[in-house]
Design goal:
Blueprint: E1 2-3, E2 10-11, E3 26-27, E4 39-40, E5 43-51, E6 56-62, E7 66-72, H1 81-94, E8 105-110, E9 116-121, E10 125-127, H2 128-134, H3 140-159, E11 172-175, E12 180-182, H4 224-239, H5 249-257, H6 264-267, H7 273-282, H8 294-304
Antiparallel strand pairs: 1-2, 1-3, 4-5, 5-6, 6-7, 7-9, 8-9, 10-11, 11-12
Length: 348
């Protein structure tokens, strides 16, 4: 890992300069984990399982719930009482979300050193990015099924008035039994896109244009921002590429003003034109051109995934009733053939 001396963010080794500040990155010194073995309430931390945008995520052990996931929040993100209170309210609201396709949030706890952690459902498996790597032969039907599950979870949140606002593959978990669960609703008070420091190369492709100032005729982003994010993720699953190649907000703005994305049906011949149109509608630049709600997106996605009606049999192959008679005048059932009125027009 490398670290930026100015913003203190850590980046993978392939980065040479900080994408935020443009400064040369330095090698990150090896540090012991300050949270290893720490307790938050009744929950004791065990192994670190991921690095989240809000802070590291650990597997923990809770006496009542068993294995749980615990995210220790970076104290710099809660630098004021106003932010801390808003975050606590967001966690309490997220804890009310109970749905099969949402990571359950149990609440927040404070450690002995004053650090704040969010205790959540532990999902054995991995995120969607890892799942895609482990299943390189993921087909169209499987891809659509994953996004349909994700949409079901987001719909449940929208019905409670909660916009996720930060959907991307690392926040879509796929459990070992194939169930999709959306995580990250507890971070609503620290929503991405509000300033330059919250836009990173990892989340930029999934932030709707109105979230990062490219579209300015909305008072604030609404549920259609989540439609955009899921549409981009589905586009990537189907096309094996991003709809817009951009490394910064400026480059994304230029890409959105340029040629439209290559339809998924062009990149992948297994994708039907109907499904391709649904995806392109979801990732439209302006919210008014997208689906009006996640429910509408899910309905069109479901309809696009239905098998096409088989063509009607040709006249020659179609069954005829009653069955035709042979030359002896006996039909296929062994009964004397009935004659139609048309038969009587001709003499015997």
């Amino acid at each position: 890992m490398k670290v930026c001396a100015l913003c203190k963010r850590k980046w993978e080794d392939e980065y040479r300069v900080c994408p935020i500040d443009g400064l040369a990155l330095q090698e990150s010194p090896e540090e012991s984990d300050p949270h290893a073995g720490q307790s938050f309430g009744q929950t004791r931390l065990r192994d670190k399982i991921a690095d989240g945008a809000l802070g590291p995520i650990y597997q923990g052990e809770d006496p009542a719930r068993g294995p749980v996931a615990v995210q220790v929040v970076n104290p710099e993100l809660l630098s004021s009482e106003v932010l801390k209170e808003a975050f606590e309210q967001a966690v309490k609201l997220a804890a009310k979300l109970v749905h099969a396709n949402i990571v359950r949030v149990y609440g927040f706890e404070t450690g002995a050193d004053g650090s704040v952690a969010v205790v959540m459902e532990y999902v054995p498996g991995g995120d969607l990015g890892r799942y895609r790597q482990e299943h390189p032969a993921l087909d169209v039907a499987q891809s659509v099924a994953l996004i349909r599950q994700a949409a079901e979870g987001v719909i449940a949140a929208h019905r409670m008035g909660l916009l996720h606002g930060a959907l991307h593959p690392s926040r879509i978990l796929v459990s070992s039994d194939g169930t999709v669960k959306i995580g990250g609703f507890h971070r609503n008070a620290l929503r991405e896109g509000v300033d330059a420091f919250s836009v990173t190369p990892e989340n930029l492709p999934y932030l709707a244009p109105e979230q990062i100032g490219i579209i300015r005729d909305l008072v604030s982003p609404d549920f259609r921002a989540d439609v955009y994010a899921l549409g981009v993720i589905l586009y990537e699953l189907l096309s094996r590429r991003s709809p817009y190649e951009a490394g910064s907000v400026q480059e994304l703005a230029q890409a959105l003003d340029g040629s439209p994305p290559v339809p998924p049906s062009f990149a992948n011949t297994d994708v039907s034109p109907t499904l391709s149109r649904v995806v392109l509608k979801a990732i439209s630049k302006h919210p008014g051109d997208r689906h009006g709600s996640m429910e509408e997106f899910l309905r069109e996605l479901t309809a696009a995934g239905m098998p096409m009606r088989a063509p009607r049999s040709s006249r020659a192959d179609a069954p005829r009733y009653p069955p035709p008679a042979d030359e002896s005048g006996v039909d296929a059932t062994g009964s004397p053939a009935r004659r139609s009125s048309a038969d009587n027009l001709w003499p015997e």
